[in-house]
Amino acid sequence: MNGRTKVIHIEGVVGPIEVSVDFPDELKNNPSFAVRGLALVAHPHPLMGGTMDNKVAQTMARTFNQLGYVSVRPNFRGVGGSAGVHDDGVGELDDLLHITDWMRTPSSWTSFEFTQQQSWVSSANSLPLVVSGFSFGSFVGSHLVQRLADLGRPAERLVMIGSAAGKWELAPVPADTILIHGELDETITLGAVLDWARPQELTVQVVPGADHFFHRRLHCIRNIITGAWLGMPDHRS
Questions:
Q1: Within the chain, where are the H helices?
Q2: CATH hierarchy code of domain 5-229
Q3: Cα dist. 102→11, 166, 214 in Å?
Q4: How far is CA 148 from CA 64, 161, 177, 237, in A?
Q5: How far is it, in rounded angstroms, from Cα 203 to Cα 72?
Q6: Mean pLDDT, 10 residues at a time, over the chain (237 residues)?
Q7: Which of 4, 27, 138, 199 could disulfide-link 133, Cβ–Cβ 3.0 to 4.6 Å?
Q8: SS3 of 80, please?
């Protein structure tokens, strides 16, 4: 990723959770840089090789960095240095909810030596939170956004890449959810995503020629997300 990527372990529901934290490059030279928000990135299916280092997950994290967000990419249960075993999305949802609590706690960030004097840390509990996920991660992410709303701690926005429609039961999502799908996705068909999106009147942004993993199309993900943020309110302004 970049010079401000740090891999740490935080205590989770069933043991340690391995987490990669990606900081905006601007923080390297400008400690007073106004962070725009926090972004949680959920990776694809653990039993099919999905990890926090998946290229789509990294692309999302880096894109949010460029938009001024601090990005957090956890490994799901049983992946890398994360404890536990795959739990079909149930335990994974509990873990992501726990991680959002950690992200929104100012003292969590003081463990990073270079952040201790940065002004954004003290306001971490009030910064906007973006939830994003790829494939299986989009399934867990949809339920996380629903849970956060029920708890009165709503996410700023949800981004779903290769959304898992037809494979797992997605939660209803907000109307402004960003849905990005590959035209030639062989794992989750575009038709299944359209069938799921249609009754909710959601817009699906299709990347022509892209497969499930967006080989040679990762820049399209970056461009769509960046474009969607244009004109959005910015708490730093």
A1: 26-29, 55-66, 90-103, 136-150, 190-197, 218-229
A2: 3.40.50.1820
A3: 10, 31, 31
A4: 20, 20, 15, 26
A5: 26
A6: 81 96 90 94 95 98 97 97 96 97 95 85 95 98 98 97 94 97 97 97 97 97 95 70
A7: 138
A8: coil
